[in-house]
Design brief:
alpha/beta, Rossmann fold, 7-stranded mixed sheet, 7 strands, globular, binds guanosine-5'-diphosphate, binds magnesium ion
Length: 212
């Protein structure tokens, strides 16, 4: 399907409405736990902020940087009244001290376990490194909560089509063995490859009931 399909135009409009609402290190300070939200997870530098910017068609929405950040914040973007995208803190910045890593685990763990409106997870993984131990851990969280998941294999412009497809196949086999409900999208925030597919997959996560 091309991006000019009516559904894709509608989805582009839906995600363009995204607005920054707040950021907080405490999941209890998030907006009221109603409606639906989808969380984005990924190792630092995986391309998470770039993916959010591409999907929402807003270059400055989530900050992108060449130097992985250290902030351990949940960043909330609203899509109208009842839907939200949550940018989870990145993981794996080498200079982060041990106790901050512990805080990170506690934050993600509590958020994923307690948040009723969480209806799906997008795991962003650099196609050249997928799947990392971090990605496997996020997928295990999804399995534990019967949460649907979309894997964005990011920076796919860095590989030729053949190796990219092969990585996707390999990763899908790995995920299937883990027993997680997911799909895997070859994605590039730079070339916009897989953008319409990513939007469709994300909309499917938002549109399903939070309770399983
Ligand atoms: N080649 C390429 N580089 C990308 C892509 N997406 C992100 N990057 C680069 O990867 C680095 C980290 O991106 P960022 O979105 O800040 O990652 P985050 O830490 O996961 O939020 C930046 O230098 C981006 O320009 C992509 O699709 N293709
Ligand atoms: Mg980021």
């Amino acid at each position: 399907m091309s991006a000019s399909q009516p559904l894709d135009v509608e989805l582009e409009r839906r995600f363009r409405r995204a607005q920054f609402l707040m950021s907080t290190p405490d999941h209890h300070k998030l907006p009221e736990d109603l409606g639906r939200e989808v969380a984005f997870a990924g190792r630092s530098n995986a391309g998470k902020s770039s993916a959010i910017n591409a999907i929402t068609d807003q270059n400055g929405l989530a900050r992108t940087s060449k130097t992985p950040g250290r902030t351990q914040q949940l960043v909330v973007f609203t899509l109208g009244e009842t839907e939200r995208l949550i940018d989870l803190p990145g993981y794996g910045y080498a200079k982060v001290p041990q106790d901050l890593k512990r805080d990170w685990h506690a934050l993600i763990d509590n958020y994923v376990r307690e948040r009723q409106s969480l209806s799906g997870m997008v795991v962003v993984s650099d196609i050249r490194h997928a799947l990392t131990e971090f990605d496997q851990q996020m997928l295990a969280y999804c399995r534990a909560r019967h949460l649907r998941c979309v894997l964005l294999l990011s920076k796919s412009d860095k590989l030729n089509r053949g190796p990219a497809m092969e990585t996707r196949r390999k990763v899908l086999r790995e995920i299937e063995e883990m027993g997680v409900l997911t799909e895997a999208v070859l994605f590039s925030a730079h070339s916009k490859a897989g953008l319409a597919e990513a939007r469709r997959a994300l909309a499917a996560l938002l549109d399903q009931p939070a309770e399983q």
